[in-house]
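Thread title: Can someone regenerate the structure for this chain?

I was given the following input by a collaborator and told the matching structure tokens would be attached. They weren't. Posting the sequence so someone can regenerate them.
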Amino acid sequence: MSDSPNLLEVRGLSVHYPGRAKWFFQKAEPKKAVDNISFIVPKGKTIGLVGESGSGKTTTGRAVVKLAPLTTGQILYQGVDIGALSNAEFLPWRKKIQMIFQDPYNSLNPRADILSILSEPLEIHFPQMTRADREARCAELLRSVQLPAEHLRRHPHEFSGGQRQRIGIARALAVQPELIICDEPVSALDVSVQAEVVNLLQDLQEQLGLTYLFIAHDLAVVEHVSDQILVMSKGQIVEQGTPAEILGNPREAYTKTLLAAVPRF
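Best answer:
Regenerated them for you:
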């Protein structure tokens, strides 16, 4: 492994999907969801990835955790090209890289109670743990996201959207990851709850030394959490810089359009 301060380095990443020809004899052009992008994520930092729907930002995050197929490029985690690993070879790395999904309603199994949901990754990655150990760990995880341990026996439908997202965060934390891909973690929540969840993520980062790739379409949220911001459009990174640079002096017309959509009070 590398001793580089960069936990993650993406080089020339492309994710192309088969296209559909308009005419029978016409050659189908591939859909370039992500097209030859490169960026780094330093250890302990938050890199914001912002863009409108369809810009390729979510596909980028999913590619990092092998939920989207790479067409070309490298994904280096501590110097190891995890993008070239098979699913079986990648399994040990899943402890290091976890994902928080956008939709807190569909990302949790509605038939399972919270204890089962939080126990599943522990059973996979820590098979030596006893049932009592797992339950104690799950209670600890709930408390870490500011929910009572008594909620372990409840089911997802018994919680609000904000509470479900906290459970999703707890599930991501279960295996003690180093890097978390936050895929629009607050966009499905009420505005009144968004700040609470963002503040929780920042507190957990400080307490646990986490590194985030924070994906969002809202520049205001990304500005609040990020050390660096990457702006994506049509599968490519069109601008990058510090929050002050991106919001104070955007160079690209696309970035200015995103900035104009930020509510001003």
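The chain has a mean pLDDT of 92.
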